[in-house]
Structures are given as structure tokens and as C-alpha cells.
Amino acid sequence: MPKYTQPRKTWQYTQEFKAKAVQLSLMEGVQVKQIAETLDIHPFMLSRWRKEFREGKIMVDKRKKVVSLKKEVKELNKIKALEKKIAKLEQENDLLKKWQRFLAETHQNDIDSSRETDNSE
Q1: What are the Cα distances from residue 88, in Å, to 75, 81, 91?
Q2: pTM, to two decimals
């Protein structure tokens, strides 16, 4: 196993970032995993921040209401819908490719069988 010559990079997140992430994760219809993926953090870290929020270690400034929360949740839902649509389109594309291969094989078999009948005459 290689030895590290430099210490590992530890990311430091601001209290405001943590509070916003916790607020997003507490909204209805949103999963912790979705928020974590969107913010590019590990879901365990977000769960830990939620625990710290419950314990009062992370404070949310009531005066600075996060106005864009609804917009962000709307964007997350839109992204989720687009991902589903992409998956469906990829399935349809794969199905069309299979159909195209089938038709090509059938056409080739027809050509081969017509050559055999021409050669036998």
C-alpha cells in the first residue's frame, strides 16, 4: 500500500453552507441522498450535519431566510424527471438498435437464400 507523503485534503464547509444543506434535506419530497449528490458531498456527512443541527451546533439565521429553497427543490425535481426521461429514451434507443439488427439479419438471410436458389438453377 502506498504511503502518503502529503496530508489528505480536508474540505472546510461554512456554517451557512451546512445550514442551507440541512434546510434542503428537511424539505418534504426530497431525499438526503439527492441533496448530497447535488452538493457533491457524502450522504453520511449530510446526515451528520442534520444531527448537529438537531443538537444546536449548526445554527440557521432566521433573518436570512433561504429564499431560493423552493427554486432549488424545483430544479432537483426537474433534474430527476429529466434523468428518468433520459433513461426511457436510452431504453427506446436500445430497442430500436436491436430492431435494426434484426431487420439487417433478416434482410441478409433473404439475400443469402435468394443466392442459393439462383445457384441451384
Answers
A1: 20, 11, 5
A2: 0.49
